[in-house]
Structure formats: C-alpha cells, structure tokens
Write a structure and sequence with these properties.
The chain has about 170 residues and is mostly helical. The protein has eight helices and two strands; from the N terminus they run αααααββααα. It has a two-stranded antiparallel ribbon with strand order 1-2. The protein starts with a helix and ends with a helix.
C-alpha cells in the first residue's frame, strides 16, 4: 500500500528530487549494512571504499580522489593524512616521477582485510537495486543518467567560464 503510493508520487516528482531520494536510501542501507566501522567518518569510509575498489585494477593518486568526489585538494589531503595516521593507507612517491611529486596511495593490510566485505556488500546492493528490472531498461537508465550527469558538468563548466569572464571584465574596469 505505502509502496504503491510512493511509486505514484515518484511518477510526477522532479528528477533531482528522485535522485536525491534514491541516494538517501542507498546511504541508509549502507549505514545499516556497514561492516566497515573501524572508527572512520562517513567521508573517510567513502574514500577508503573508493581506494580499495580502484586499487584492484589501477594505481590511485590524490587527484583521482579529488575528481571522483569533486572535493578540494586541501580536504582530500586532510582525509588522507588521517587515513595514513590510522594505518589504512601508505602514501608512496612514484620513483619514475620524482619531479612531479606524484604520490600513489597504497592500502595497508588493515585496509585490505576490509575489501572482501565491501565487495560483498556492493554485490548485494547492486542485486537489490536491479531486482525485477529488465536488462534493456537498466541500459536505458544508465544511458540517461550519463547524459544527465554530462548536462550538469557542462552547465557547471559554462558557469565557471562566465564567472571568470565577469571577474576579468571587472578587473579591467578598475
């Protein structure tokens, strides 16, 4: 009964609101299922999950985290320092790249021990999200979400350019 009412309301709801609600439900589910407590804050947990999943197939640099979470360099630096202090990561210089001072982020054994439960939790959540939805609808959903994201990024870039141009004009007038 409540579920049907919710589905009817969602049919007419704004896209942004629906995405926000879905995100909120996912966060609530993750908190309920959170095996990875380990005394980490929410943002430290998200970044640690990202590091553990990404390092399965490639190196992770601070810039990757800044871009993935769209957060400032100083914020990421602070989080990484705490993760390192608490024994979850090591930051290592890339030997062939000394002049650029690129630091690769390496999960420690303590962090590695959390990876299986994270992968398991991710699998359960993905299965639950897709339950009863045909593959072709999921494909359309992914395509639409990618385009929506692209629209927002493009608008953000255009706004940033406009703001930069306004500042430059103001500086000329001074």
């Amino acid at each position: 009964e409540m579920m049907q009412d919710m589905e009817c309301r969602m049919e007419t709801m704004h896209m942004g609101r629906m995405i926000h609600m879905l995100s909120h439900q996912l966060k609530r589910r993750n908190i309920q299922e959170e095996l990875m407590d380990e005394g980490l804050t929410g943002s430290q947990r998200h970044i640690m999950k990202f590091i553990l999943l990404r390092t399965l197939h490639t190196d992770v640099y601070q810039k990757d985290i800044e871009e993935e979470f769209r957060i400032r360099k100083s914020t990421v630096t602070g989080i990484l320092k705490l993760l390192e202090k608490n024994g979850f990561i090591r930051r290592e210089s890339v030997p062939q790249d000394a002049r650029l001072k690129r630091i690769v982020i390496v999960p420690t054994a303590r962090a590695e021990s959390l990876r299986p439960q994270i992968l398991e939790q991710l699998g359960r959540t993905e299965a639950l999200l897709m339950e009863g939805i045909p593959e072709e609808e999921l494909h359309i959903w992914r395509s639409v979400m990618c385009r929506m994201f692209g629209n927002l990024v493009k608008a953000e870039e255009e706004a940033s350019k406009t703001n930069k141009n306004i500042k430059e004009e103001e500086e000329k007038d001074e």
